[in-house]
Amino acid sequence: EQQNKELKERLLQLKKERNAIILAHYYQRDEIQEVADFRGDSFLLAQKAAETDADVIVFCGVHFMGESAKILAPNKTVIIPDERAGCPMADMVNVDGLRKLKAEHPNATVVTYINSSADIKAETDICCTSANAVKVIQSLDTDEIIWVPDKNLGDYVSKFTDKKMIIWEGYCNTHDMLTVKDVEEMKAKHPNAQFVVHPECRPEVVKLGDFVGSTTAIIKYCKESDCQEFIVGTEDGTGYQLRLDSPGKQFHFATKFLVCPNMKVNNLKKLVKCLETMQPEIYVPEDIAEKARLSLERMLLVK
Ligand code: 13P
Ligand code: SF4
């Protein structure tokens, strides 16, 4: 407790000295979300990175998020608490494989989930997040789409379009673990609860949702709904904002396994240390960044 207090004081001081802004994804540990300037889903945090006038962005999330921030704000210094915080889904697609698919479907538009590396974004026409995936697809004037890397989100989005979708076989290890049986057991235990679910879950699980959306959309839905009790089908860090926004309501995570180990690699101590040492810093080669930037900026323009 005393140590946390000291760390927080040191953090405030360093933030001022460096003119830094702290961005934290909803899946971060509570101790990080508590001290963030902005908490959000991938979309909101990418927007904040693009808009900020701070000199330093401290991105508390996973590696691709820091990379996207650097691509959108190339003149800022972007640091992260621990470079080992990766995203296994982002690593499931590689440049050679994507190029091969593009060669096989030369007329297809490449739509890439923001959960991907800068190299993949550089091979992409437009990015999306779970918050805007349907809008992005519907904004495209094309008959054929190459979709990477999340097959579950791809399946969800394909229900909202007649376009042909060629879907990569990636998935999020954390969300993909949730099963129909898990949800049914929870529903039996909490018969008055609504099930809110992230579209990174398996299609048959998403189908059971009373509401489907990104983390921000789930938090907003629970706050505004008349329902008082929810079974939550997304990563457990989301509980922090859910409880803050809806203090009187009950939230039951659908299993105790909805924890992304990569997101939890970061902690308050590492956050303070990275601002102290200004390491690890994110670099993206300029030729890659330039191409990747186009795909992210196109996404930010979709209304
Ligand atoms: P959102 O931030 O779009 O809800 O996505 C969840 C996720 O898995 C981020 O890694
Ligand atoms: Fe990647 Fe899933 Fe963790 Fe998000 S929750 S960072 S998609 S592994």
Overall description:
- The protein folds into 3 domains: 2-87 and 263-284, Rossmann fold; 90-171 and 288-301, NadA-like (Rossmann fold, 3-Layer(aba) Sandwich), CATH 3.40.50.10800; 175-253, NadA-like (Rossmann fold), CATH 3.40.50.
- It has helices at 2-18, 30-33, 42-51, 63-72, 95-104, 118-121, 133-138, 151-158, 180-189, 203-206, 215-224, 239-245, 268-277, 286-301; strands at residues 20-25, 38-40, 56-60, 77-79, 109-113, 126-128, 144-148, 164-167, 194-197, 211-212, 229-233, 250-253.
- The strands form 3 sheets. It has a 4-stranded parallel sheet with strand order 2-1-3-4, with helices on both faces. It has a 4-stranded parallel sheet with strand order 6-5-7-8, sandwiched between helices. It has a 4-stranded parallel sheet with strand order 10-9-11-12, with helices on both faces.
- Helices cover 42% and strands 16% of the residues.
- With 303 residues, the protein is α/β, with parallel strands linked by helices.
- The protein contains 14 helices and 12 strands.
- The structure holds 1,3-dihydroxyacetonephosphate (13P) and iron/sulfur cluster (SF4).
